[in-house]
Amino acid sequence: MKEIINTDKAPQAIGTYSQAVKVGKTVYLSGQIPLVPETMEMVEGDFEANVRRVFDNLSAVCEAAGGSLQDIAKLNIFLTDLGNFAKVNAIMAEYFEQPYPARAAIGIASLPKDAEVEMDGVLELP
To answer: Do the Cβ atoms of 115 and 33 come closer than 8 Å?
Structure first.
């Protein structure tokens, strides 16, 4: 049975999707870009501010599902510039503790709203 996860502490969907879907103890997190939940506008600031906003958005959805970032088993990171890979790693270390999730970092041409970064993942609840 599917349970739809929704929180006002993360941006509302800008398309035909849910913030997350829970099936049993597994939660499938939709992609998050650096939107500020209260305004639905892109966060102001540099690339690092964008990455932090994305992690904060993911964290809010994880918490709404009954978990945390530490419960993410698989994280996908989409970057319009793979030159930012090291910056993502440094910021990720502020949000995650070892053991880190499995992860992919994928370079792509563009993202919604001209975002530079988007992340999605799979969460396994305890």
So the answer is: yes
What gap in Å lies between CA 34 and CA 56, rounded to an integer? 9
CATH of domain 2-124: 3.30.1330.40
69-100 pLDDT per residue, tens: 999 999 999 999 999 999 999 999 999 999 99
Q: What is the C-alpha radius of gyration for the chain, rounded to an integer number of angstroms?
A: 14
High-pLDDT (> 90) share of the chain, %: 100
Q: Are 65 and 24 in contact (CB under 8 A)?
A: no
Q: What is the pLDDT of residues 36-48, one digit of tens each?
A: 999 999 999 999 9
| Partners of residue 122 on adjacent β-strands | 28, 74
- Measured distance CA(3)–CA(116) in Å, rounded: 30
Q: Please tell me the distance from the alpha carbon of residue 44 to that of residue 42, in angstroms, as a whole number.
A: 6
**φ, ψ dihedrals at 25, nearest 5°:** -100, 5
